[in-house]
Design a protein that fits this description.
The protein is α/β, with parallel strands linked by helices and 163 residues long. It has helices spanning 15-24, 47-65, 78-85, 97-113, 133-141, 152-161; strands spanning 3-8, 30-36, 68-74, 89-94, 118-123. It contains six helices and five strands; from the N terminus they run E-H-E-H-E-H-E-H-E-H-H. The termini are far apart.
């Protein structure tokens, strides 16, 4: 069974994330969405909220595709999380060249820690390349419309957070 791990903070989950999740499903038998507990980032949504948002979006994808998706919070090293869930593939989304530079360093470090886990990069759909959770939160905080960037339930959650 091919198991892939798609890690991130998902604060909040965006349509870019959903795009990568849907396309990753074609590569693996089971996709684990690793929701990172990153205290240094000071997330807008707490862990339970982020997990619930990702689960809700993944439920729709599973209903359409019949695939298997598991949402798994983690706070350890990414490579250790991959081992914990039995993933042989780490899936990362790329938006721009700047993403690649950072990801290239991460792949090198992960390969040094465990060279049996491969990393696969998926380019975000052209319509989704500019979407970043950080920018979505900033636009929402300042009263802008983020409905084009996030699923409807996430849009509602952002409105509640910044009401």
């Amino acid at each position: 069974m091919r198991i892939g791990l798609y890690p991130g903070t998902f604060d909040p989950v965006t349509l870019g994330h959903v795009d990568i999740i849907q396309r990753a499903m074609a590569l693996v038998d089971r996709l684990v969405i690793g929701v990172a507990i990153n205290r240094d980032k000071g997330p807008l949504f707490n862990l339970d909220e982020r997990v619930a948002m990702v689960q809700a979006e993944c439920a729709e994808i599973v209903a359409r595709t019949g695939g298997e998706i598991v949402v798994h919070p983690f706070e350890n090293l990414l490579i250790d999380c991959a081992r914990d869930v039995g993933a042989g593939i780490i899936i990362r989304g790329l938006r721009a060249v700047a993403d690649f530079e950072y990801e290239f360093q991460m792949v090198g470090m992960n390969r040094a820690l465990d060279n049996t886990v491969e990393t696969v990069f998926l380019m975000a759909d052209a319509r989704r390349q500019a979407i970043a959770s950080k920018l979505v939160k900033e636009i929402a905080r300042l009263g802008g419309d983020v409905s084009r960037f996030v699923p409807p339930a996430v849009h509602s959650a952002l409105k509640r957070k910044f009401a």
